[in-house]
Amino acid sequence: MHLAGRGHDVTVVERESTPGGRNGVLRQDGFTFDTGPTVFTMVDLLDDAFRAVGKRASDYVSLRLLDPAYRANFADGSRLDVWHDHARMREEIARESGVADAAAFDEFVVWLRKLYLTEMPNFIDVNYDSPLGLLRNPKAALDLVRLGGLGRLGPTIARRFRDERLHRVFSFQAMYAGLAPAQALAIYAVITYMDSIEGVWFPDGGMRAVPQAMAVAAEEAGVEIRLSSTVTKLRRDASGRATGVTLDGGEVLTADVVVCTLDLPVAYERLLPDLAPPRVVRRGKYSPSAVVWHVGVRGELPEHRGHHNIHFGHAWEEAFTDLLVSGRPMRDPSRLVTIPSLDDPTAAPEGHHSIYVLEPTPNLQVGQVDWHVEGPRIRERLLRFLQEEGYPTDIVTEKLITPLDWEADGMAAGSPFALAHTFFQSGPFRPNNVDKRVPG
């Protein structure tokens, strides 16, 4: 949409039968499951895309704020709701954790906002082609240091709050960056700001409604979208410049510029087999993977279940060791249970619910797991977990997705979360957007 808004003729080639790429959809036995992202934050970025083609996002898709954003459940039986409303969240913390932690929350929000206002315009929303680019704005870099952004996230949170439950609630987001909170830089607290402070949203019609709305607006702006089409070759001339693509049916699309959204290892393997991938692509450290279980069930939900429900295990740092170092399923896992049918009546028939269960797992790079064996086992563990937590388990339909499935879909190391955001895989150290050996 941004390219079209700048006057370029754009053709989007999509392998699936619906727009959205990884934001996919599964329709099965009367249920509809979103197979991609479930947590939607930073809605202003969606507005930016629509404005690029002279449209308003609100004219194409309706969003509702989820409040609470999450319902956190702990192994000791306690619960804590994560509210978007500051006063309500402060009250929740005061009741559950004490007045000292409630006061600490006020200071925490101020710190998060400063961190966000420093990072977003100067680092997150800027392309850096080399580490020297960081010197363009020394004041912003100094501000980041002064804010403690280069410290460790876990200890930073622990110093602010006494209640260990708050340590987890405000640091688990490091997993989105592929890191354990104890090892993640404090700059990644900005993710906590994005969901816990800015809010978590849900589109009417499910997450799939977002790419569908974008596709409509893009086509109105002149973009051509080719569905159910797979690119089998990146065409290049004698100088190496990209000149277009070949589709699975043999059709050739010519182009001045080709934008590839495949995971880089897969892109080089399938489309640029004659070129050696950059070092960070060959030797990069990938984020953990996940098993996702889509379940359509008959029955009523227990009380105090929200759209997003986090169930923390007893273990915390030990669980990350299992995940990131030992390469085995977590012995005491934390899990996310999302219930889209609470806010999307099209997700399940009347009297039924669609449930999404996610458990982090090792990726295929570090993991020593036979998923043909472990897949059925983890499915049984997830079933027992749902039963113990009181979720309905009269299963009508289901689909289990393991790291092998992510890999088959073209995701490097069997992880849907790409390269981990370690220090030397962040910002200017990540692979460049352009390979100079392939102009265009």
Structure write-up:
The chain is an alpha+beta fold and 440 residues long. It contains 14 helices and 16 strands. The protein has helices at residues 2-5, 43-52, 86-97, 99-124, 138-146, 153-160, 164-169, 189-197, 209-220, 264-271, 279-283, 317-326, 371-388, 403-408; strands at residues 11-13, 25-28, 31-34, 63-66, 70-73, 79-82, 200-203, 224-226, 231-236, 242-247, 252-254, 289-298, 308-311, 335-338, 352-361, 394-401. The strands form five sheets. The chain has a seven-stranded mixed sheet with strand order 6-5-13-14-15-12-16. Strands 9-10-11 form a three-stranded antiparallel sheet, with no helix packed on it. Strand 10 and strand 11 form a beta hairpin. Helix 4 (99-124) crosses helix 8 (189-197). It is globular, with a radius of gyration of 22 Å. The model has no long low-confidence stretch (mean pLDDT 95).
